Amino acid sequence: MTAATNPRPTTVRLQRMVRAYRESAALMAGVELGLFTKIAEGHNTEASLSKAMGVTALHGERIIVACVGLGLVERDGDRLKNAPDVERFLVQGQPGYAGEWMLFTKPDWNEWGRLSEILQNQTPPRADNVKVSEFTVEDARRYHRATYSIGRGAGRLFLRQVDLSGKKHMIDIGGGSGAYCIEAAKLYPDLKASVLDLASVAEVAREFIAENGVSDRVEALACDFNKDAFPQGADVAVMASNLPMYGRDEFRAVVKKTFDALAPGGEFHLVGEALDADRSGPADAALWGLSEAIVNGTGLAHSTADVEGYFAAAGFQDIQTSPFVEGVLQRTSGRKVK
Ligand SMILES: C[S@@+](CC[C@H](N)C(=O)[O-])C[C@H]1O[C@@H](n2cnc3c(N)ncnc32)[C@H](O)[C@@H]1O
After folding, report:
1. What are the pocket residues of ligand 1 if the criterion is a CB atom closer than 6 Å to any ligand atom?
2. What is the DSSP letter of 81?
3. DSSP letter assigned to residue 303
4. What is the Å distance from ligand 1's center to 215 Cα?
5. CB contact at 8 A, 68 and 75
6. Which atom of ligand 1 is nearest to 238's Cα?
7. Considering only CA atoms, which of 195, 189, 194, 182 is closest in space to residue 165?
């Protein structure tokens, strides 16, 4: 091989990665200081933006320059403007606002700083997931304000990919805020839906359901999906964004319980942060799996081949996987043949 096709390795990639936590911190600080919101409100010079954020001119210059360097904010002469994704998702008060989701994993921040120590812990994992199983209603409300800010869009994306015409009853396992059921009920006036989640979360889901005016057709039921029975006879089941939270045995059992609960002809869609079948990535799914070390639960990064295996073992047919959000989420579906 020539030098051109096999260049000498450098430290550039490693240096970038090892300091990536600074990027996370700058973005989170930008959200917390309302930097992007204030730009949208017209504070579009360094001086006025620093003042509006309530920081000194020196700190203001530092965080603004960092956000420009990261491509979150753009310069137009001496005026500042938000990058298009920032303008759409990080301006408070806008319908797409997802600032809470940007801060969703921040409570784990200190733990990531002691990851190697955590990985040397020999204590066997807990079968439940302390991160959610010990939630108060107030914890659940905070957590699901964040998941709802991104879940609504995911619910709509799901409905663009999956036609639920003619379906009568949808269950959403670990449905959180109820975002998928709420969006489905809005689109399909004859559809009934049940959000299944832990008791404190179900209480919060009822608030989102009521806010969206669909309480007559969408219910939220207290249901630990590892322990409790599912409502019987639904013709569509969804499970989204909780794949890395539990281990292989737990997921195999949940998929089987879903198969048993569905009406003949029913379909199951599992949207998850899955690795590709060869387990070589994507990094995002791998890192969700790694994050489970922090709670010392059974969770890990499952691959699409793992998930398809759980579906096949349960008895599902027509099993297929396709990207749901490229590089982030995959959707595996299967049918319970009549
Ligand atoms: C990241 S949230 C995803 C929520 C929702 N599916 C969405 O996509 O917006 C994961 C959800 O799984 C729920 N969950 C975790 N373990 C559970 C269990 N054992 N039984 C029921 N729900 C559980 C959590 O309470 C939380 O609502």
Report:
1. 129, 132, 147, 151, 154, 174-177, 179, 197-198, 201, 224-226, 240-242, 245
2. E
3. B
4. 20
5. yes
6. 6
7. 189
Fold annotation for 130-335: Rossmann fold (3.40.50)
2 pLDDT above the threshold of 80: no
The CATH fold assigned to 13-91 is Arc Repressor Mutant, subunit A (1.10.10)
Using CA atoms, how far apart are residues 224 and 173, in angstroms rounded to an integer?
9
Give the residue extent of every domain in the chain: 13-91, 130-335
Mind giving me the DSSP string for 266-282? -EEEEEE-PBPTTS---
Ligand 1 nearest atom to the CA of residue 240, by list position: 6
Q: Which two tokens stand for residue 179?
A: 């975002």
Any alpha helices (H) in the chain, and if so which ranges?
Answer: 12-18, 20-32, 35-40, 46-53, 57-69, 84-89, 99-102, 109-112, 115-119, 130-133, 137-161, 179-187, 199-211, 248-261, 283-291, 304-314
pLDDT tens digits for range 260-289: 999 999 999 999 999 999 999 999 999 999
- Distance (Å, rounded) from C-alpha 221 to C-alpha 205? 9
Summarize pLDDT for 6-33 with one digit per residue, the tens.
889 999 999 999 999 999 999 999 999 9
Side chain identity at residue 127, one-letter code: A
- From 46-50, 123-127, 180-184, 197-201, the region with the lowest mean pLDDT: 123-127
CA angle 248, 252, 255 (to 5 degrees): 135
Q: In angstroms, how far is the first alpha carbon of the chain from the final one?
A: 57
